[in-house]
Specification:
Distance between the termini: 8 Å
Strand content: under 5%
Number of helices: 9
Largest sheet: 2 strands, antiparallel
Helix content: 55-70%
Shape: elongated
Number of strands: 4
C-alpha cells in the first residue's frame, strides 16, 4: 500500500522547505570564541577551546517547532525513526553544528519518504484507524443505533476501496471530475483482480446498506444486517490494509 501521490508530494515539498530554511539559518551563522575564555593582562581574550559558530536563536526555535510538527505527521509513532523527534525537541544549543546534524536527519527522512520506505508503517496506521472507527460502529450497535453504525462502517469501506484503487493506479474521479463512490470502485477493483467476484457481490450488499442508511431508509435493513456488515468490513480491512 502506497502513500497517495498528492499527499506524498505535499509532505516532500514541506520537508524541502524546512531543509532550505536550515541552509538559510547556517548562512547567517556568527562566530563565537571558545567556551573556556579568559582575559589576559594586556586586555586581550583567549580561549582554551576551539571557536564555534551560532545561528539566530529565535529563528532556530521557530524552525525546530515546524520540524517537529511536520515529522510527527510523517513518521508513525512505532517507527524506529520516530526518535528523531526527540532529537529536535531536546536540542538546546544554537551551535551551527547542531543545525547541520538535524538538517541531515531531515534530508534522510525526505529521501526515505520519497523512496517509499515509510509506506508499510503508514499502512499499519491506516488499518489501526479503520479498526477504531469500526469499534465505534460496534458501540453504536450495542446502543441500538444501527443506522449511524451502517454509515460509519460504509465510510470505512469506501476509504479502504479508495486506498486500494490508489495502489492499483485506478483513477479516483469520474470523467466528470466527481469522486467515485463504492459501486464504481468495486467494479474496477474486481476487474483488476484485487478480490473475487464473490467478494465484489458482498461489497455490493454492504454498499446497499450504507446508501439506505445515508438516505434515510432504515426500513430497508435490520440491525443484524449492519452487524454482519461491520464484521465483514473489519475482515476486509484486515486482509487488504496490512
Amino acid at each position: 500500500m502506497t502513500v497517495p501521490k498528492a499527499l506524498r508530494e505535499k509532505y516532500l515539498a514541506e520537508l524541502k522547505a524546512l531543509i532550505d530554511a536550515s541552509d538559510e539559518l547556517l548562512a547567517g551563522k556568527e562566530r563565537r570564541l571558545g567556551r573556556a575564555r579568559r582575559r589576559l593582562s594586556d586586555g586581550s581574550v583567549t580561549s582554551r577551546g576551539p571557536d564555534f559558530h551560532v545561528v539566530n536563536s529565535p529563528e532556530m526555535v521557530k524552525w525546530k517547532t515546524k520540524c517537529v510538527s511536520l515529522l510527527a505527521q510523517i513518521i508513525p509513532p512505532n517507527h524506529p525513526n520516530f526518535k528523531i523527534l526527540n532529537e529536535f525537541q531536546e536540542c538546546r544549543t544554537g551551535e551551527s553544528t547542531a543545525v547541520e546534524e538535524l538538517a541531515g536527519r531531515l534530508r534522510g527522512i525526505h529521501d526515505s519518504f520519497r523512496d517509499g520506505f515509510l509506506d508499510d508503517a503508514w499502512s499499519l496506521i491506516r488499518a489501526e484507524v479503520a479498526a477504531d472507527y469500526l469499534t465505534q460502529a460496534e458501540t453504536l450497535l450495542v446502543d441500538g443505533c444501527h443506522v449511524p453504525a451502517a454509515v460509519l462502517a460504509g465510510a470505512v469501506l469506501e476509504d479502504t476501496l479508495r486506498k486500494l484503487a490508489v495502489d492499483k493506479r485506478i483513477d479516483l474521479q469520474t470523467k466528470k471530475g466527481r469522486p467515485k463512490t463504492i459501486d464504481p470502485l468495486n467494479v474496477e477493483l474486481k476487474k483488476s483482480g484485487v478480490y473475487s467476484a464473490v467478494k465484489a457481490k458482498e461489497i455490493d450488499g454492504w454498499a446497499g446498506i450504507r446508501n439506505a442508511a445515508a438516505h434515510g431508509k432504515p426500513d430497508e435493513f435490520k440491525p443484524d444486517d449492519v452487524r454482519r456488515m461491520v464484521e465483514g468490513v473489519r475482515a476486509f480491512v484486515g486482509e487488504h490494509l496490512k
